[in-house]
Amino acid sequence: MSQNSKNSFDRNLKMMSISAAVLIALFVYTIYKSSAHIEGTQYYVGLIFLFVLLLASFGLRFYREKIKIFLDKKRKNDSRFSNFEKELDNTKKEPQKTKIKDVSYSETNHIESISSNITFDDVAGISGVKEELEEVVDFLNSPKKYLKHGVKLPKGVLLVGPPGVGKTLIARAVAGEADVPFFYQSGASFVHIYVGMGAKRVKELFLKAKACAPAIIFIDEIDAVGKRRSGSSNDEREATLNELLTQMDGFEGDSGILIIAATNKIDVLDEALLRAGRFDRRVFLELPNITDREKILELYLRNKNYNFDLSALVNNTAGFSSAALSTLINEALLHMIKREDVQISDEDIQIARDKVEFGKKEQKLLNSAQKEILAIYQASKAFISQEETSLFDEGIKKENDIYPSKSKLLKTIKKYLSGSIGIEVIKHEMYAINSEDLKYAYDLANDIVQKYNMSNNTDELLIEIKNELRSEISRNSSEILRLKDLMLKNEIISIENIHNAQ
After folding, report:
1. pLDDT tens, residue by residue, 99-123
2. Of 164, 163, 169, whose CA–CA distance to 129 is shortest?
């Protein structure tokens, strides 16, 4: 309802009330002066009518706000109906234009928070990750304890790991433990074909999160919007990334807003996202080892009847992610129901495992022989690098050395080549396992020659390093085989295991 309509409505009510009061006063005065000549009931009916009119005027004034809202809604509905008729006519003339308008309007809405009922108890096999995130949860629960010492909450936590390891589930667990609103968005939801829509969505997301602070924003697959900028174009994705960077700079660590992002392609992310002050903490997740898988399966089998060897299943699911283990148990339950039974049997597990393996050809679902080869590969890397290594580690830990020495560069190349040379020495045959390690070794050797001018020939440098590795691994083959047995047993080699082996 317009302002002029509201003022007119108030004036009419006021005049109605004054008129009713004046008429009643005149009528009462007339009765008082001429009471001897009043006959019949018509005078009293008139008096009652005037009183009802006065009461009605007071009632209307008391409920005037509700009446205004009702009239306003009625006016809007009439207006919408009229607009609908107009749009219907326009649709016949310009159907494509109307369709684009509807899409752009709908995709900018529906950013709502959710409450997570998942806690760390519902996520198994993340003991190391849990320790990393407990500080964040404690800050969200008790910010005063940290703020009084000038400590600020990390702006962002980046979860890095292969698909299916539970990055989204962990983010929900953090929100559940802290009992704060949880805003979920995928990176793809920010990518629009309409200019400015992605940046607008980012801005709306942060505005809503700030209004609900403390809160958690979770951006899944952030690499969809956060890829490294080329600088040769200014497309919609880069505009959206710029807005995300601006918003992350626009609040302090005491604002109560935490951004959690997930990716399995950290190497493609823009450097501006990874700098200190944006994603201050990085948490690396790996495929679950044998201990983790046992805890995960126990969690998924909680309150379920089963009649199979759990330890055997744990050993036979090397390479399964937590999502794959969840699917395995679910498929086994479906087959159990199909058999009209109430217990999961070995038959159910085997059929479910075949289905998971058939649908997950790219995953490392290993038999015993393949697992032994990979264990030798990783044991050789652990021995040469003197670092903790798990069965499904990919690559080696990067060193942020600004001015590396030649000896350090050569040692890094040895780490990359140690797995393949270890297999060659111990199995007396070359195996194709991790082509990425070989690529990194060759690229680094080429940099030593071409970029740093520390050597004359790349191939000669690599041959020299490989010969040194063959000699070192041959002398220590028994220790590497001992580490291999530990890897097969625990699927992880700790620093203590390496020192004991030596």
Report:
1. 333 333 344 456 777 878 888 888 8
2. 169
